[in-house]
Specification:
Lipocalin; mainly beta; 10-stranded antiparallel β-barrel; single chain; two-stranded antiparallel sheet; 13 strands
């Protein structure tokens, strides 16, 4: 008994909108050359997708986040304050149908860049009280293969694996409170690691929702993982 592959039909020339959100955090601080940095990120925003039944689906997303109390811990600086996050992402998914089967495949590539800005951090640097600014950028490029099991048109279970090319850099700079002495400390890390993910798509209150969990290796001088939960739900904007 054989099977054949074909491109999954999608609506052409239609833009679909979703509200989206995610939160990600490393299992332990990132360590590079004896420097350490705690990392977490997240956002809430909107995603626009354009589908074509022959060439697949493209998406673009933008999100923001604000936290009134975040910690930025470097090797020689322990800081806290409010932080603003902007996130932009884009990607492409090519769907492949397995004929006469509830299974299908998705080939995807995507990029997400998150920029963190904090202008009013306080804390200590080398045991001295300081005021500081903190800026961090994380860039994640993923390519993946997913296997979907479709129970019905709106209920789908997905598992997948992929490769992650990533880069994180963070800088804290400021000055001591008691003296006019400035400081600056930074950390840069990058690599290529693997990841896996699971997702569930289902109807919810008249829309279609998706929740997922992704676990990525994020290895530097030590073995680390990035754990991420994410969600989206379709909306009618026009």
């Amino acid at each position: 008994m054989g099977c054949s592959l074909g491109v999954v039909a999608q609506a052409s020339n239609e833009v679909d909108f979703d509200v989206v959100g995610s939160f990600a955090k490393t299992s332990k601080p990132i360590e590079v050359d004896t420097k350490t940095f705690t990392f977490k990120t997240g956002f809430a925003g909107v995603k626009a997708s354009l589908g074509d039944e022959e060439y697949g689906k493209f998406h673009l997303q933008y999100g923001v986040a604000y936290s009134p109390s975040e910690d930025a811990n470097f090797h020689d600086a322990n800081l806290s304050g409010d932080i603003f996050v902007q996130s932009i992402g884009y990607g492409y998914t090519y769907p492949i149908d397995i004929n006469d089967s509830p299974f299908s495949l998705d080939l995807s590539i995507s990029n997400v860049t998150n920029k963190h800005t904090g202008d009013d951090f306080t804390g200590t640097h080398s045991s001295n009280a300081v005021n500081a600014t903190v800026n961090a950028t994380s860039d994640f490029t993923r390519s993946s293969l997913a296997l979907n099991y479709e129970m019905d048109e709106q209920t789908i279970f997905t598992v997948g694996v992929g490769s992650l090319n990533w880069k994180i850099d963070a800088t804290a700079s400021g000055k001591r409170i008691d003296k006019d002495i400035t400081f600056s400390t930074d950390i840069d890390a990058s690599g290529t690691d693997g990841f896996y993910f699971v997702e569930s798509t289902f109807p919810l209150l008249g829309s279609v929702a998706k929740i997922g969990y992704r676990r990525s290796k994020l290895n530097t001088d030590t073995t680390n993982t990035l754990n991420e939960v994410y969600a989206e739900a379709s909306v009618d904007l026009f």
